[in-house]
Amino acid sequence: MGVMTGPQLWLFRQWASPEVIARLSRCLDPEERARADRFVFPYLRVQYIVAHAVLRCVLGQHLGRPPASLQWHTGPQGKPRLSDDPVEFNLSHAGGWGLLAIGARRRLGVDIDVVRPARVTPGLIRTVTSSAEQIEFSRLSAAEQAYAFYRLWVRKEAVIKALGTGLSRSLATIDVPIGVEAPLDGIVLRPGLPERRRLCLWDLPAPTGWLASIVVEHEHGEVPSPPQLPTVLSQTQIDTLVR
Questions:
Q1: Which single residue of 27, 37, 84, 155 could bond 67 by disulfide (Cβ 3.0 to 4.6 Å)?
Q2: Which DSSP state fits 196?
Q3: Hey, how many other C-beta atoms are within 10 angstroms of the C-beta on 91?
Q4: Percentage of the chain surpassing pLDDT 90?
């Protein structure tokens, strides 16, 4: 059985000084710069520039190419891909933290989110759960349900990002574990993947108050290698990326 090399991960704050933001902006393409300029609130502009420039810089280093030279195309459901290289990557950000994954030609998806228990309601839980998951939630207290919801949410988001379907696929057609410990093969899809393909799930270290997960597709018979621990990029390292 072959062993799959685990994806590489980077975790970073979506902030930088004005001088660094100016340098990061030069890594973006014209469409990305135009989109950044359309944000009404300056902090959202900064977060967008940092996230997308870090993606370009890290991916550029990985491929040995200038960040600004990278060109994307989008799949049928909007998932971005490089126009001229099959390397897999995925970006997620929430609450000022970004998470980036790069893998070796295996579909993958990552998600990071802020845990906000006050936002979790029974109606919200019903909109994203299958009937089997709703039974599991019914056995939990309100406090337990709030944290279980966010574990389920980041895991399901990672699944649909790996599949590249976006929310065109109902989350009720995906079952994921809701407990603290996530089994590697705990994902159930209806309909499932083609024969000999499966999705593997790992939870990732995240800042206090955030949760994060990664999902990677591979073939039956392969021994999945867990992802590397995320490299946490400091502000100095983000600045160095563009120097």
A1: 27
A2: T
A3: 20
A4: 73
